[in-house]
Write a structure and sequence with these properties.
By secondary structure, the chain is mainly α. It has a domain of 69 residues. α2 packs across α4.
Length: 99
């Protein structure tokens, strides 16, 4: 995915190198805020093993998000994961990898 397609912190555009770092699972990048870091860890864990969200991750989330925000974030992540799976099931092209 090209960095220009990603946005964080409102209207800001994510630098391509930061996007590549996150997509490679490097979530400790100092350019990420604590909230962003927790959110990408949560999204990654939900994608790879939603049953594996452990106490340490819940604690990290609770340190930077309200309960309502955690629910909203979880619903958003679940929605995007589901949409991605549906698009893949339909055999539609992955526009994220097209330049």
């Amino acid at each position: 995915m090209h960095g220009r397609h990603l946005a964080r912190s409102g209207e800001q555009i994510v630098e391509e190198e930061l996007a590549k770092s996150i997509m490679a699972g490097q979530f400790d990048d100092p350019r990420l805020s604590p909230r962003e870091r927790a959110a990408v860890r949560y999204a990654d864990q939900m994608w790879h093993d939603h049953h594996g969200v452990n106490d340490a991750l819940w604690s990290e989330l609770k340190d930077v998000f309200t309960h309502e925000e955690i629910v909203e974030l979880g619903m958003s992540v679940a929605n995007y994961i589901g949409m991605g799976q549906f698009i893949a099931m339909l055999g539609l092209p992955n526009i994220a990898h097209q330049e």
